[in-house]
């Protein structure tokens, strides 16, 4: 079953149906959670969808399961470069190049990382606010290998197993994850230049993953964490002593205010951003968003994709299964909502008039 899902995921990726590929890879991983190849391939789908912190986490998992897999290092580096974490990317590329010396992409990307790092070594304090306010990825597009999986699948995000909070000091941010009685060896924490990855896998408890892109850059080698009886406490060393208005990066972030370290006394208490939260009229915001979505005028493929997304979002389980099965088996030429009809047979492709089906070999 897992191998069938993997095959369908690869076919979906080749056809540029990245959301569907991601969904199928996730199902395959649930059935075979120790297969490193699945994590590396899902990382590539996440990169295509710009889910960059998720891509880094998947690549890290693939490396953990199979440290000799060169493409896992390539996927990690690709995601890190899009996140502008060039030091982390370069380290991954150098390891991958040692495993696959004949692969020219490693040396090409290492050179690009070195150029980017050289650009950043100017005035870091002046570059930091500018980097936080950027709305797009680096100017140079990273060349990706297309060896993987637009039926878009929307689902409500699952509620996290543990609650987290943060507070900050002038030179560090302290993240607290409230998890009681977790053994130290069940906690894994990884740091990037602007990413944090926390995985908690305790026996008999639901797996927990927290992978935010951070508000600003940190110094990974100076970060540390402690597993305490009631919580996991993570200390992130700020690269520049600016005030973080939130834990996670936001494109709408305001201009940051630099903290004058010399004016902060040792006895000054750290600030808790959530101690006096402002009241927000969420009902008003939700109504406004719904109105904007309703008033949005789409045409062509965008209108058709939205129509199918709306059907899928409000459909029952059988209808969703019918849509997925018919779309995959027909190579994207049939989309049925009748499970009784498509559930009992293979859905044949139905190309438009004047065109013929072509089977791609993986």
UniProtKB/TrEMBL annotation:
The keyword Zinc is annotated on this UniProt entry: no
GO molecular function: protein-folding chaperone binding
Record domain SGS: where: 271-362
Keywords, alphabetical: Coiled coil, Repeat, TPR repeat
TM region(s), chain numbering: none
InterPro entries: CS_dom (IPR007052), HSP20-like_chaperone (IPR008978), SGS_dom (IPR007699), Sgt1-like (IPR044563), TPR-like_helical_dom_sf (IPR011990), TPR_rpt (IPR019734)
Taxonomic superkingdom: Eukaryota
Family, per entry: Belongs to the SGT1 family.
Annotated ranges, domain CS: 159-248
GO-annotated biological processes: defense response to fungus
Record-level GO cellular component terms: cytoplasm; nucleus
Gene: LOC107917913
Swiss-Prot/TrEMBL TPR repeat ranges: 36-69
Coiled-coil ranges per UniProt: 35-62
Name of the protein in its database record: Protein SGT1 homolog
Key word Repeat present: yes
Cross-referenced Gene3D superfamilies: 2.60.40.790, Tetratricopeptide repeat domain (1.25.40.10)
